[in-house]
Amino acid sequence: MSTPPNLTEEQKNQLRVLEPKLRLASVRRDFEECKNVTAQIQGLLRPTGHETRLMQSKNWLYETAMEVGKIDYAIRGFIGVRQKASTSTRLYLEATSLLAICHLRKSDLEKARPFMVEALKCEKNIKSESRRSDFKISLAKRFDEEALLSSIATNVCEDLNVDKIQEDAAKLIQTKHEDEILELLGSNVPEGALDFIERVNAESKNLLTYEEKLMLPSPATFKQKKKLGKGVLAAFQTVIWQSLCDKNSDVYKIWFTNGLQAVLDKKYLTTAIVGALSGLKIGIYAIAVYLTSLLIKMGIETFCNVYQPNNLMALRK
Questions:
Q1: Which ranges does the record mark as transmembrane (predicted)?
Q2: I need a surface site. Which of 59, 67, 75, 219 has the fewest CB within 10 A?
């Protein structure tokens, strides 16, 4: 691929508006807005051959598609990015990692495996040994979390009524301690699903050094209900954190100016949780109640500080 010309001042000025707009739409899980903004960026960059910059925007679009449950659309998109990007680039690595996650969300380890292997090797993509090790540990944890989320997905969706969920969550926190709620949450992971989680964990660990393996949770963690509940909460952080904690999100703005009660009065917190669960095809009413009660009990500020995810794009910095 030939080197494109330098961006014009007009292109730079438009990208200063469009790229942050795309990231904000991604944070809000607004897939249609992401599509519209990406189309504008494509119209701006493709005529001058700036494909790499365009593919970076498309990764944001396809990741958003993945988060709202449009997995097949995301898979086709990440395959397209991999075909256009150089195999030694961070862009290629991100598309490969997210493609593996797409297949894990479909509980298809066989299709995920080659992309997991390629992503966890990544010698060509990250030259620094320490940064490569950090990336591998973070990605292996993410693969475990995605396996956990896919294990509680179901084709049968219960009625996730926001008002009733918030009402039941409020009752629960009056009678249960946080540890008890975590144990209840862990109890909703089907016993048969643990095999899938353990197989994904084993696949990742095969590609890590001894020192890197020590940084991951022990497989025994998956058999303890309270720790399994913590695992579900940690896994859920990846898909809910930006909706709650990004400074541009509606929830964060209202919480910051008016406090948690205002967030609860408008049911923003519960609505965000239900939206994320629906995107993951996790239609289990009890899980919605337990997650809502845990976030109310610990508070948004604590959740945002303790459970901040290391997403793939952030690790680029």
A1: 268-291
A2: 219
Model confidence band, residue 72 (pLDDT cutoffs 50, 70, 90): very high
Q: What is the pTM of this model?
A: 0.84
Whether 66 contacts 101, CB under 8 Å? yes
Are 266 and 162 contacting, i.e. CB atoms less than 8 angstroms apart?
A: no
Token pair, residue 314, equals: 């952030």
